[in-house]
Design brief:
Order of helices and strands: EHHHHEEEHHHHHHHHHHE
Helix content: 55-70%
Distance between the termini: 14 Å
Number of strands: 5
Shape: globular
Oligomer: single chain
Largest sheet: 3 strands, antiparallel
């Protein structure tokens, strides 16, 4: 099979009621995330921020307020208007990434410059915005290419150039994990758009040695691989955080140790409120809490993908598919890292991890998906689409 697509021919769209189920899942995940920040961060915040136990909770609330403002913007703004803003978003995102290389504009943490300085001691991680930018840029490009009737006139190289430019600029921020994740999302977007499979193999063949070289070029990346393959090594240094997280998860048992009772153990996990906050949720809520979280996450993904596949706007369909995939896959990867099933990365847990950039961009993507769920085809039979043989479609 040389050509395929996951999205049938789409009729023109009109706006209908929002997907209440998806909206409820967003509110639930955000609420439980804020609750987990409250549980896990109090002691750490009190020690390092002038006895302010609610330091991280207040910052997460402030960033959530900004995020929900953007959520409403992308939820109610006409899809056609969003398409007109794409090039502006691309340019702004790229400029913000480049600005991180300027010392007096950026913040250095652990030898990496990924954050821009903002007023009131806030920072912004531009690579988080790239996740949304890349998704809507590719969605718009694929829609335009799909509308070209002559297959010979279609060209994938321009969007590959933009895609690689973002991956490279993030990689030089010493954010290897995010650059790999962006590559995964980009390839997924190419795949679901119906791009010919012949484009994938050369890229994958070239990517493998590049990834190996990049891992070997930094000592901490090698240590993460060694720590993953040999969990017993580096228990007092590079593997300490992972082993402490696994101990916290085990301590939770079936029902959890209860709200606040596991904080003494959680404090042994450096900055547990960030990338390893899932360990805090697991210890407090136990195996039952883990199942409840996974159920919410799966429901979120199912409703989001449902909105994508039912959306008549091809741009909104591709875009919402990409946005849901970013949040869902990032959540799964974070959980696997915390449980020791993947090498340690710097990828946060959406809705849960403390970080203004993460919660803002996550809510932006959710707003876009809700907007897509409001789209309904014009016609006498809303919700029904023509069935198309995926073997006969002409694609990018």
């Amino acid at each position: 099979m040389n050509s395929y697509t996951f999205f049938a021919m789409k009729p023109s769209e009109k706006y209908n009621k929002i997907d209440v189920g998806f909206l409820v899942s967003v509110i639930l995940l955000w609420g439980f995330g804020l609750f987990t920040v409250f549980v896990c961060s109090q002691s750490y915040a009190a020690r390092f921020f002038n006895n302010d136990s609610f330091y991280f909770v207040k910052r997460q609330l402030a960033c959530s307020a900004v995020g929900f403002a953007f959520f409403l913007f992308f939820m109610f703004t006409d899809i056609k208007v969003i398409k007109k803003l794409i090039m502006l978003i691309v340019i702004v995102s790229f400029v913000l990434c480049v600005l991180t290389y300027i010392p007096f504009l950026s913040v250095e943490k652990n030898g990496a410059r990924r954050w821009l300085k903002l007023p009131f001691n806030f920072t912004f991680q531009s690579s988080e915005l790239v996740k949304f930018t890349l998704v809507i840029y590719l969605a718009n490009y694929f829609e335009k290419q799909f509308e070209i009737t002559n297959e010979k006139d279609r060209d994938v190289l321009p969007c590959v150039g933009v895609f690689l430019a973002f991956v490279i600029v993030v990689l030089f921020q010493k954010d290897f994990s995010t650059s790999i994740f962006l590559t995964m999302i980009g390839l997924l977007m190419f795949f679901v758009s119906g791009s010919k499979l012949k484009w994938f193999w050369p890229f994958l063949i070239l990517a493998i040695p590049v990834v190996i070289i990049m891992i070997a070029s930094e000592q901490y990346r090698i240590e993460r691989i060694v720590g993953f393959l040999r969990p017993a090594e580096g228990s007092g240094s590079f593997n300490y955080q992972v082993n402490a997280a696994k101990n916290a998860i085990s301590a939770g048992g079936l029902w959890g140790v209860g709200i606040g009772r596991g904080l003494s153990k959680l404090n042994s996990i450096p900055e547990v409120q960030a990338d390893y906050i899932f360990a805090g949720w697991s210890e407090s809520m136990g195996f039952v809490g883990v199942i409840a979280y996974l159920a919410m996450l799966i429901f979120f993904a199912l409703r989001g993908y449902r909105a994508a596949f039912r959306c008549p706007s091809r741009f909104a369909a591709y875009g919402s598919f990409g946005c849901v995939s970013v949040i869902f896959l990032q959540s799964i990867i974070n959980i696997m890292v915390v449980c020791g099933m993947l090498p340690s990365t710097g990828i946060p847990l959406p809705f849960f991890s403390v970080g203004g950039s993460s919660i803002i961009v996550t809510l932006i993507m959710c707003g876009f998906v809700v907007n897509a769920s409001r789209c309904e085809e014009s016609g006498d039979e809303p919700g029904k689409y023509e069935e198309v043989n995926i073997d006969t479609l002409t694609v990018l």
